[in-house]
Structures are given as C-alpha cells and as structure tokens.
Amino acid sequence: MLKLGDYNTLKIVKRVDFGLYLDGGDEGEVLLPKRYTTPQMHIGDELTVFIYLDQDERIVATTEAPLAKVGDFAYLEVAWTNQYGAFLKWGPMKDLFCPFREQKQRMQTGKHYIVYVKEDEETHRLMATAKVEKYLFTSESTEGEQNESEVHTLKHGDSVDCLVWQKTDLGFKVIINNKFQGQLYDNQIFQPLFTGNRLTAYVDHVRQDGKVDLTLQPTGHQHTLDFAEVLLRYLYENDGHCDLGDKSPAELIADRFKVSKKAYKKAIGDLYRRRLITISDEGIKLV
After folding, report:
1. What is the pLDDT of residue 184?
2. Low-confidence ranges of the chain (pLDDT < 50)
3. How far apart are CA 100 and CA 111, in angstroms?
4. What's the CA angle centered on 108, arms 105 and 109, to 5 degrees?
5. Residue 112, SS3?
6. Residue 139 domain-assigned (yes or no)
7. How many CB atoms lie within 10 A of CB 136?
8. Phi, psi of 112 (to 5 degrees)
9. CATH number of residue 203's parent domain
10. Which among 121, 111, 79, 71 is positioned nearest to 96, based on CA atoms?
C-alpha cells in the first residue's frame, strides 16, 4: 500500500515520453515525471521516491526530498494565500495547503511558521496545521498516547534532536525528536536562538506530564571534567588568572565561556580539589 506524503520504494514498469511509470500496487501505476528521470533508470529497477498529489489530485512521484513528510514538524515559509488558507513551500512543486481552520493566526506571505504535516482524514489530501500541540505527546493529549512509555525512557543526560518552537517567559519551547514537547530555560541558553532553529540538546528532567526540561550542555560529571580542562587551558593562556570567580554574575560567565554559572562553579571546585588553583575575591589563579 502506498504511503502518501512519505517515501516509497517502487519498481519501474514502463517508460513513456513524459517520464516513467512505477508499480503502485492497488493504486495502479504512478508517474515519475521526466524531469526527475535519468538514463540510468531502467525497467525493473526499484526507486525510492516521495509520493504526493499533484495539482489535479493525482498520485505522483518525485526524487526530490521535501522539507517535511507526513508526521513531521517543520518550519515552513508561506508562498501565497487565498480565500481558503495559506500555501507553504515544502519542496514538491505543489505547495502544501494550510486551511484557515488549522491556523492559530492568519498566516502571511513570506513569513515562516511551525507546522505539522498530516493527511486529512476526510479528503486524504496532504495538509499542514499550525495547531501542533495536538500532535505532541503530553499526559493530556490523545494524539500522542502511544508515545507515553517512549518519552519516559528518556534519561538524564540523553542527547536529543530539537526544533525550536516558540519563545516563552521562561525561555523556549522546543519539539524533541519530532514527538515530544520540551523546554529550554533562559538560564541554560548561552547562544542566540530563534524559532525554526534545529539543534542538539540534553535531557535534564522528564516531568510527569510528559514534558521534558532540557539543557544545551551535556550534563553530569564528565561535562564538569571537560569544562574544567577548558578553564585550565584558559588560565595557562591568560597569565594564570581569571577575574571571574564563583560569585561572579551568571551573565558574565555565559558571555565569556558559554556555560552556566552552575557548570562554572563545578569546574572551579574540581580544579581547587586538584590543588591547581586558588580562589579569592579577585577571581581564580593557577597555583
């Protein structure tokens, strides 16, 4: 059975002037237009192609990779709008439709939005929705109930892939591993972040409601040791002195070393226990 809005591996069954026909099983033959074909493609070969609906709602294949497939969250630009909704650039020649009912605010041409790509249950057409909360697992959600056990397998220190979602009073909401909702707090952010950024973060804590608190830095003892060596090298390169101590403002520490004050204090403690530095009101010095 064909997976609409996803990658499929199909066999070439016929060559015509305007492209290749692929075996779509119960859906019949699927056209791969000539612009996507090469002389190296022969009848009997299997191709991995992306399947979507063209302007006439016919199933068609492409070898171009879309920016997102069904089940993905993505940050997409609005190509144009009409009286029915917005049309988003997502790779294939036909733009992805987001009807007004699936928008949180009226989308504007040229602006980008975080959306979820899905197949409409009634029309079976591919579409986008900006109401992404429905498709992220939380203890209150229904769409994501199958992911409940999976989110609780995340452990402190695990690295995860994140899509930055929206700014909040606490920091940034992010989408984790294309499934879960996470939070990056302002005191853990030491680099410019913007909606649509993709980055690696680390699990700090998984809450009972399924939401995940994150940090941009590796957590645990190994990270303390790693940064302690960075700080030690800094001291060697700066005449054995650093004017930032364990009471220095977190903003100054983050600006210079791109770490939290907590991580900085742990590194100082590690170097002090190893009798490599002294600590004073003026900062730290190599012994």
Report:
1. 93
2. 139-146, 221-222
3. 16
4. 155
5. strand
6. no
7. 24
8. -105, 150
9. 2.40.50.140
10. 79
